[in-house]
Structures are given as structure tokens and as C-alpha cells.
From TrEMBL:
Signal peptide: none annotated. Residues 1-47 form the Transposase putative helix-turn-helix domain. Residues 248-272, 411-459 are annotated as: Disordered. The gene is tnpB_1. This is IS607 family element RNA-guided endonuclease TnpB. In the N-terminal section; belongs to the transposase 2 family. In the C-terminal section; belongs to the transposase 35 family. It holds the Pfam family Cas12f1-like_TNB. Residues 333-398 form the Cas12f1-like TNB domain. The keyword Iron does not apply. GO terms for molecular function: endonuclease activity. Keywords: DNA recombination, DNA-binding, Endonuclease, Hydrolase, Metal-binding, Nuclease, Transposition, Zinc. The keyword DNA-binding applies. Residues 196-319 form the Probable transposase IS891/IS1136/IS1341 domain. Residues 450-459 have a biased composition (Basic and acidic residues).
Length: 459
């Protein structure tokens, strides 16, 4: 049993009054963010000016606090003056904006002194009208509505109907294995969503075939080929969507888009086409994500170990076609889902080295071909005579990578008590790829909120 933070996201179907309340809350969030940022910027430049006059130490205007708590305190003193309408919205809307500002400031500061990984972050900027709408509620009455499983409750906004049933979460709440911690509303692709951040007590059953290793070859033609011979087809709507996308882009090109040089505003008709294009992209992404979720759940419930390729597979970089790009997005998402779901189910995940020649190696005898063209759909081995589908060969190689790689790897599987849920395996150093264990290889980790799809949008 483990406790993880998971997100449950539902599309909302608000009535006009609720919709304007949602907009108002998200707008207030932005207002509070910008207010706090303005205050901090003014404070910093005031101090800078004072320092340039030779003042220093105690003579300078004191720094404005950067913590969410400090900002909230300042806001509560100033709100009557700067936002006399503040009482129209829940106080959570303002707190949400200020909390986002505080974390943006902290990220900037950490990034500057090297305490934060990833690319360097700039100083927070004012949020314009086109910034994504969102607002987070951490206190107040929010959650599911008991009666029909088709409504959620939000502070101030009231009981809002959802587009789909909330039963998956409702059942968990009823059983006492879920505790809703916060609710974030957001507006994406012409639709309102609520995302509940939920503390889930998970008790996943062990996979049905714990002794089997599965190799997954991610492809372009089909979504994936499994070492069992199963081919996971690409969802067909992708092709249909691409035809539609080309049509819409032609349509947009005939309409008047914005032009900064001449101060030309976009026409309404152009904007409408753009909205359709965004909707189409969102539909494709949703369908793809849905398919991936179903696939990854099935895989981690079945196999004891899963081997994936590392991303940036060499060939992928060279091809500029959209299909590859879309496939690439799916690949990253598939890996992300397998990694966190495997962690819950106690399944080991192995990421093959980026340069491991999974396509060029013969899965029968292990001979590595010098050259294999992308157009060669069938792998034919000249030394042992094996002949099979190119992607299946690659998938089998991936599976072999772990099965053959080390007895030491398997030896760690059964720890003294032999409880499969508690199994911790570390990949032995110096196995197949000869490199240190890659990120996430075969380790059972408890990641905080790995599923939170909206986190990236919220801040
Ligand atoms: Zn061979």
C-alpha cells in the first residue's frame, strides 16, 4: 500500500452564470498575480534608485516579502483600495494568484543560484489577457456531489455539471481511499475543466505474468509493437485529423491574419479558423492520450518487467514529417505513463540505452547488421536465417536485453520475505548497455503527483 498524489480531471458543463463566475475567478487570480508582481518590481526599482544615490543598509526602503504568506497579508491590506470589488470572488482566487507568484519568484531565485535544475528561468512577467485561465481552491467546500455523480461543487461557483461521470473518483471517496486536497479550474481548448488533486491510497495487485519481460518497440507506422507479436495500431483518427488540419490551414491562409508591421488585426473569420485548428489539435491529443492510458494500464497489469527504448531514437531526429512529431509526443507520454504506473504496481521498467541497436540486431542469434534501411520492413538475418517483421525483431531484442542481461538482476528479485509488492530491484551495474542505470530503471519509486497533467499549465 502506498499513498500517492493523483489528479482527477473532469470537463465541466457550466451554465452561463457559472461560466462568468469561473471567468471572474480566473481573472481575479491574474489580477492578484499582477498586483503582487507590480508591487515587488516597484519595490526593487525603488531600492535600486536609492542605492544609486549612495544610500545603503537600513536607509533603504525595506524589501517587500516574497512569500505567499507575506503577499497575502499585503493584499488583504490593499484590496479595499486596489480592488473594491474583491468580495465578488472567493478569497481563494487571490490567494491562488499570489501563491503562483511566490513560487515563480522562488523558482527564479533558485534557478539563479543553481538550486534548480533545467534551463535558466527569467524573472516573472505580467500575465496578459491571453494567459491561460486557471484558479486553484485549497479551502472551502469543493468536491463531488453525492446524488448523481454528474456534478462537482466549487466554492462560490456552486454545483456544476460535468460532461462525464465522476464515479471512478466517487467510489474511491466512498471507500475511504481518496482524500481530495485541492481543486483547480482551468480553461483549455474552449472548455472548462476541474482538476482535483487527490491523495490516493493505492493497493495495486501484482501483474498477472510476473515472470515475463515485455519489450516495446515504439513506432511510427503502428503505435507500438510488443515482443509478444502484438501490434498496437495507430489510432486512425490521426490520419483523418491531418487531412482536416491541412484543409483548415489552407482556409486560414485565405483569411486575414494579424500583421504587426502594419498594425493589421486578425479578422473574425481567421480567428474562427484558428479556434477550429486548436480544437482539432486538442481532439487528437485527447484521443491519443486515452489510447495510451488504456495500453499502459494493460501492460503494467500483465508483465513483471517492461523494456522501452530511450527517446530521441536516432532516426527520429532526421525526419521532419508531422507524423513523426506526433509519434514522438506519444512516445514520451507512453514512457511517462509506464514509469509511474509500473511504480504503483511494482513492475520494473528498463530503458534501453539510446544507442542500443535494437533494430539492427538479430533477435535469434545476436548478430548485428552493419546497415539496415528504414525501408526494409522485414529483418532477414544472413547468419541464422531468421526472418521476421522489423519492429517485432526490435521488440524482441529489447525484451532479451533484460532477460539475458544479468542473473544478478534477477537474483535481487526475491528478497527474503518474497513479497512481490515490496520487491525492490536495482539494475546491476555493467549489464547489457554497460552504462550506469538510467533514470528510473527497475526502481520502484514513489513519485509525487506524476499524473498531474494540469500542473504544467497551472503556474
Ligand atoms: Zn540471426
Amino acid at each position: 500500500m502506498s499513498t500517492v498524489l493523483q489528479a482527477y480531471r473532469f470537463a465541466l458543463d457550466p451554465n452561463p452564470g457559472q461560466e462568468s463566475a469561473l471567468r471572474s475567478h480566473c481573472g481575479s487570480q491574474r489580477f492578484a498575480f499582477n498586483w503582487g508582481l507590480g508591487k515587488i518590481k516597484a519595490n526593487l526599482s525603488q531600492r535600486e534608485a536609492e542605492a544609486s544615490y549612495g544610500m545603503g543598509g537600513d536607509e533603504l526602503t525595506p524589501l517587500v516579502g516574497w512569500s505567499a504568506y507575506g503577499l497575502r497579508k499585503d493584499w488583504n491590506q490593499a484590496k479595499h483600495e486596489v480592488a473594491p470589488w474583491w468580495a465578488e470572488n472567493s478569497k481563494e482566487a487571490y490567494s491562488s494568484g499570489l501563491a503562483n507568484l511566490a513560487s515563480a519568484l522562488k523558482n527564479w531565485r533558485d534557478s539563479r543560484v543553481g538550486r534548480r535544475q533545467g534551463r535558466r528561468l527569467g524573472f516573472p512577467r505580467f500575465k496578459g489577457k491571453r494567459a491561460g485561465l486557471s484558479c486553484r481552491f485549497t479551502t472551502g467546500s469543493f468536491g463531488l456531489v453525492d446524488q448523481d455523480r454528474r456534478h462537482v461543487r466549487l466554492p462560490r461557483i456552486g454545483v456544476v455539471r460535468t460532461h462525464e461521470s465522476t464515479r471512478t473518483l466517487a467510489r474511491r471517496v466512498e471507500k475511504g481511499t481518496a482524500r481530495i486536497r485541492s481543486a483547480t479550474v482551468s480553461y483549455r481548448a474552449r472548455r472548462w475543466f476541474v482538476s482535483f488533486s487527490v491523495e490516493i491510497t493505492r493497493n495495486d495487485s501484482t501483474p498477472t505474468r510476473p515472470g515475463t519481460t515485455l519489450g516495446v518497440d515504439l513506432g511510427i507506422k503502428s503505435l507500438a509493437v510488443l515482443s509478444t507479436g502484438e501490434v498496437i495500431a495507430n489510432p486512425r483518427h490521426l490520419e483523418v485529423a491531418q487531412r482536416e488540419l491541412r484543409r483548415l490551414q489552407r482556409q486560414a491562409s485565405r483569411r486575414q491574419g494579424p500583421d504587426r508591421r502594419h498594425g493589421q488585426k486578425a479578422s473574425n473569420r481567421w480567428s474562427k479558423t484558428q479556434a477550429r485548428i486548436r480544437k482539432l489539435h486538442a481532439d487528437v491529443a485527447n484521443a491519443r492520450r486515452d489510447g495510451l492510458h488504456k495500453l499502459t494500464t494493460r501492460l503494467v497489469r500483465t508483465y513483471g518487467a517492461i523494456v522501452l527504448e530511450d527517446l530521441n531514437v536516432s532516426g527520429m531526429v532526421t525526419n521532419r514529417r508531422l507524423a513523426r512529431h506526433v509519434a514522438g509526443v506519444g512516445m514520451a507520454e507512453l514512457r511517462r505513463q509506464i514509469e509511474y504506473k509500473a511504480a504503483w504496481a511494482g513492475v520494473r521498467v528498463h530503458i534501453a540505452d539510446r544507442w542500443y541497436p535494437s533494430s539492427k540486431t538479430c533477435s535469434g542469434c545476436g548478430v548485428v547488421k552493419a546497415k539496415l534501411r528504414l525501408s526494409d520492413r522485414v529483418f532477414a538475418c544472413s547468419s541464422c536465417g531468421t526472418s521476421m517483421d522489423r519492429d517485432l525483431n526490435a521488440a524482441r531484442n529489447l525484451a532479451n536485453l533484460v532477460e539475458a542481461s544479468s542473473h544478478s538482476w534477477w537474483a535481487t528479485e526475491n528478497e527474503p520475505d518474497g513479497n512481490p509488492c515490496q520487491t525492490r530491484t536495482m539494475r546491476a551495474a555493467g549489464t547489457a548497455t554497460g552504462r550506469p542505470a538510467p533514470h528510473g530503471a527497475g526502481q520502484r519509486r514513489h513519485r509525487k503527483a506524476p499524473t498531474h497533467e494540469t500542473f504544467s499549465h497551472v503556474s
